[in-house]
Every structure is written in structure tokens, then in C-alpha cells.
Design brief:
The structure is a single chain. This protein is mainly alpha-helical. The protein is built from 7 helices and 2 strands. Strands 1-2 form a two-stranded antiparallel ribbon. The chain is globular. The protein starts with 18 loop residues before the first helix and ends in a 15-residue tail after the last helix. It comes from Streptosporangium amethystogenes subsp. fukuiense.
């Protein structure tokens, strides 16, 4: 199926088939939608990801979660402080190693996550609307496989460091402190 034409264009240009451009356009549409959905959560989309991991009781402690999500450990600490203050998560000693803290969703956190997950599914359907249902499933699976492979080859453990590596002249982002500090 040929790519839909942009208004005012009669033929496809080189950008339409550029992987970086196409990924960027879809990513920006997704981020705009998700930012609007999760603006009420501490940390926005990142807060949602932490809450989702906590609600699903993914294995590993606070440090492992930060590493998996590509969140700087310092930023993760402030994000968890804010999520904890909102009553969404708690830090508990890890039974396997009491030096580590596990991030666990509270009942309020689980309910908030369930509601957010439903709204996210609707938002994702909106972003993927140009695809038929069967194509959406194939797209998600292919994208998941690419992401798992890319992460295993070159995991992003620190997004602040990644920005510094990719744009050495840019100042690294400073961790945002909680408004309550």
C-alpha cells in the first residue's frame, strides 16, 4: 500500500522513505499524545513507565529499574520521591538483598496505572489509526523485536550521558528537583 500523500504534494519525496524522519514523525505524534495523557502524573510519561513497572512487580531493585528505563539514578530518586508523595508507589527492601529497594505500586497506584493503561491504549490506537488492526499487531511485534535487539546491543543506561555523547557541545540536562524541596 503506497504511503498517503501529504496535502499539496503529488509525489513522495526522499524524506517519506527515510527511516530517521519517519520514526521521528511517529515518535513526536506519540509523545504529544502521551504528554497530554500523563501530565497529571509526577514525571509525566517517565512516571507512567515507573508506575507500570511497579504495578507489574517487575523484578529488580530501584537501580535496575532506572537502568532499564534509561533514567539517570539521581533523576530516578527525585521521580520516586514524587511518586511516593503522590501515594502511587512505595520503596521496600528487596527480600533477596535488603540493601536494594524494590519499587512497589500502592493500591492507589495500581488503580491509577489501570486507568492510565486504558487511556494509553486509546491514544496508541489513535496514533496507529492509519494501519489496519492486523497491521498494528505486526507493527507492534516488529517494533518490539527491534527495540529488544537494539537495547541488548547498546543499552541506554543513562540518557544524560547519551545526550552528551551525541551532542558534546550541548550542556547536559540537569536533574529536576521536586517542587517540594
Amino acid at each position: 500500500m503506497p504511503a498517503p500523500q501529504r496535502p499539496g504534494t503529488e509525489t513522495s519525496d526522499a524524506l517519506d522513505s527515510d527511516l530517521g524522519w519517519t520514526l521521528g514523525v511517529v515518535f513526536r505524534a506519540y509523545i504529544r499524545t502521551v504528554d497530554a495523557l500523563f501530565g497529571h502524573l509526577p514525571g509525566g510519561p517517565r512516571g507512567y513507565q515507573v508506575l507500570a513497572a511497579a504495578a507489574q512487580e517487575l523484578p529488580g531493585g530501584q537501580g535496575a529499574l532506572a537502568q532499564r528505563l534509561g533514567i539517570d539514578k539521581t533523576v530516578m530518586t527525585y521521580l520516586l520521591d514524587d511518586l511516593e508523595q503522590a501515594g502511587l508507589v512505595e520503596r521496600r527492601p528487596d527480600p533477596a538483598d535488603r540493601r536494594n529497594k524494590r519499587v512497589v505500586a500502592t493500591e492507589h497506584g495500581r488503580a491509577t496505572w489501570a486507568d492510565a493503561q486504558t487511556r494509553l491504549e486509546h491514544a496508541e490506537d489513535h496514533v496507529l489509526a492509519p494501519l489496519e488492526e492486523a497491521d498494528r499487531s505486526v507493527f507492534r511485534e516488529l517494533l518490539r523485536r527491534l527495540a529488544v535487539q537494539a537495547d541488548s546491543l547498546d543499552p541506554v543506561h543513562d540518557t544524560c550521558r547519551l545526550v552528551t555523547e551525541l551532542a558534546p557541545d550541548a550542556a547536559p540536562p540537569k536533574p529536576r528537583r521536586s517542587a517540594r524541596r
